[in-house]
Amino acid sequence: MNARAPRQKPASQRATIADVAAAAGVSKATVSRFFNHRERLLSPDIAARVEAAIATLGYSPSPMAQALSRGKSRLIGLIVADITNPYSVAVLRGAEKACQDAGYLVMLFNLGNDFERGREAIDALAGYQVDGFILNTLGRGAGVVDAVARHGKPVVLVDRRHDGMEADFVSLDNAGAMALACEHLRDGGAREFLYLTEPQHDVSTRHERAAAFGDCMKVHAGVLHGRVVESREDANDALDQALCALVGRASPGHRPAVIAGNAVVTLRIATAMTRLGWRFGDALSFVGFDDTEWAPLVGPGLSTIAQPTDAIGRTAATCLIERLGGLEGPARQLLLPGQLVLRGSSLSP
Amino acid sequence: MNARAPRQKPASQRATIADVAAAAGVSKATVSRFFNHRERLLSPDIAARVEAAIATLGYSPSPMAQALSRGKSRLIGLIVADITNPYSVAVLRGAEKACQDAGYLVMLFNLGNDFERGREAIDALAGYQVDGFILNTLGRGAGVVDAVARHGKPVVLVDRRHDGMEADFVSLDNAGAMALACEHLRDGGAREFLYLTEPQHDVSTRHERAAAFGDCMKVHAGVLHGRVVESREDANDALDQALCALVGRASPGHRPAVIAGNAVVTLRIATAMTRLGWRFGDALSFVGFDDTEWAPLVGPGLSTIAQPTDAIGRTAATCLIERLGGLEGPARQLLLPGQLVLRGSSLSP
DNA sequence: TTGTAAGCGTTATCAG
DNA sequence: CTGATAACGCTTACAA
C-alpha cells in the first residue's frame, strides 16, 4: 500500500496490458511478447492463457502508448494543399489504400489553400510522431523545407517539387502528357495553339506543363504557333479576349486548339464558351488536363488527359514505406504516364 | 549512476520537457505548469526563465504524451463513407475548420464505401484516444453502434441517422428542400413528376427524401402525380424507360418534371439525356439535389438544391465539441435549410 | 522461457 | 509557489 493515493482509475475503461496480465496470471512483459514475439519466445500453454485473457477482455494495445514507447507510430502524415481539389482527393485515396495495406494509418492535414500553414501542419503531425510525410503542397509558403528537415523524417513529394528539398518525387509525366495532347491536336489539323494555365507562381507542375507546351511548339517550329496565357479567377474579359485572338489567328481549314492546364481552367473555359456562344469541337479543338466526371457532359464531351491518380498516390505511399523500411540511396523521381481520353471537343465532326 | 545501462537516448531528437527543465534550472512540473496554469501559480521570474528555455530549445509538448497522461487527446475522429463524394469532402472541410478553431485536430478515416469497415475504423480511431466521433456513414454495416457504445465517447451523426443510436444529428432539412423543388416545378407548370434516387437501402437521407417527395405529391393530390424510381449503376435501360414513360404521361402544355436525389443520379440522368437526344428544360424540367461546380455547364444549366455543406460540417463539429465540454441533455437534431439554385433546366424558355 | 523494472514525455498529487 | 514522484499504457534490456 502506498502512502499517497494513486490517481484514481477511471471506472470502466478499455482493458490495459496490466489487466490482461493479471487475468492470465503473468507479467505485462509476457503479454507484450505475445504480440511482438509470440512464436519465438513464448511457451504454448502460457501463450494460450494470454490469448484467452485477451479474448475475454477484448484487449488491444494502445497505439499511442506503443508510439510513445517505441518512438514510431505507424502513422503517416499526409498534407494536401486543398482537399476540395478532386486531384488531391484521388491521390489521397490511392495513398491511403497502400498505407492501410502496409499497416499504416494516414493522418490528414488540409491546408485549405493557406500555404502559410505548411509549417504548422508539419509540426502538428510531427507531434503525433508520424513516421514520415507525404506532401502534396509546397512551392509557396516558407519554412516547410526547414520544418521537415528539423524533424528528420522521410518525405515524399507528390506533384509539386520543392527546390531545397532532397526527397522522392512522384508525379504525372507532364512532358509526355503535353506531347500527347499537342500531337493529337496537330493530327486534327490545328496550327494555332493556346495554352491556358492558372498563375504559375512557384508551382512546379504548372511550370513544367508550360515549358513542355513550349517545347512541343518548338519541335514543329514554323508550322505550329503557340501562346501561353495565365487565367485568373474573375478575369473573364482577358480569357474571352485570348480566345477571340486565337480564333482570329487561325487560318481557314485549320481549327485552332486550346489546352487547359487543369480542371479549374477547363471550367473557366467552358463558362467562357457559353458566354461567347461558341461550341467545343466547332469553333476550336480542346484538350484539358484532368479527366473529371463531368467532362463527358459538357458540349460534345471534352477530351482530356487522365492522370493515374490512384497509382500516383499508391506509388507515393510505397516509396515512403520503403524509406521507412530503411531504404537508402539518392532521391528518386517517379513520373507516371497520362492517358489521352478522346471525346468530341477535339475530334472532327 | 544506475547499475543498469539506461536505454540509449536517440541522439538529436525533439526537446522534451526534461530538457527544458534542466536548461531553466527548474523541475519538470514547473515547465508543465508554465503551459497549463501559467498565470495562476508561477512567479514571474521563474516563468521568464522557463519561457526563455522553451524558446531556445524550440520546445513544444508532445500531444501523444499529453494524451496518454490526460486520457484525452484533443483529437476528433471523422469517419466518411466515401472521400470521393464531394458532399463528404465539403462537410469535412467545414468540420475541420471548426475543429481547428477550437484547438482540435481531425483524424480522418475513409471507408471507401466498404461499410463493413465501420467497426474497424472506430476501433482504430479509438485506439488513438480520439475524444469523440463525427460519423458520416452508417445504416449499413454491422457493429458500428456497439463499437461506438463500447468506447463510450460522444458521437455526432451527419446526414445519416442510425436507429439504435442516441446521438446528435446534423443534416439538410430534406423535407423542406424537397418541398422547395416540388413547388418550384409545379409553379413552372409540371404535373407529372419522377423522382430518381439511388437504391435506398438503409440510408436514412434517401428514405427521407423519397418520403418527402411522396408528401409533396399528396399535398396536391389529384393534380400532381409522382413516381419514385431507383436508379442503379449500369441500369441504363431502366432509366431510359422511366424517362420515356414520364414524358409519355405528360399532357400537352405541361412539361414533366424530374428530380434527382443526388449528384450521382444527376450525372446518370445527364448521360441518359444525351443518349436520348433530349434537352434539359425542353423535353422536361429538372431539379437535382447537390449543387456541383459543373451544374452550370450541362445543357442550359441545371437547377439544383444547394446544401449548406460547410455549415453542416461546422455545426457537427460544434455539437461534438459542446458535448466534449460536458454538455448534457437529450440528443439534438439540427436540420439546416437547403437553397434552390435556379438555372435553365427548370425555367420556361 | 518468464519476471522485474526502467524508460518514453506528460500531467497531477502531495508535501514543503 | 515549487519540487518530488507516481501514474498513463506499453516496450525492452537484463536478471533469473
From TrEMBL, chains A, B:
It comes from Variovorax ginsengisoli. Keywords: DNA-binding, Transcription, Transcription regulation. InterPro entries: HTH_LacI, LacI/GalR-like_sensor, Lambda_DNA-bd_dom_sf, Peripla_BP_I. This is LacI family kdg operon repressor. Signal peptide: none annotated. Residues 15-70 form the HTH lacI-type domain.
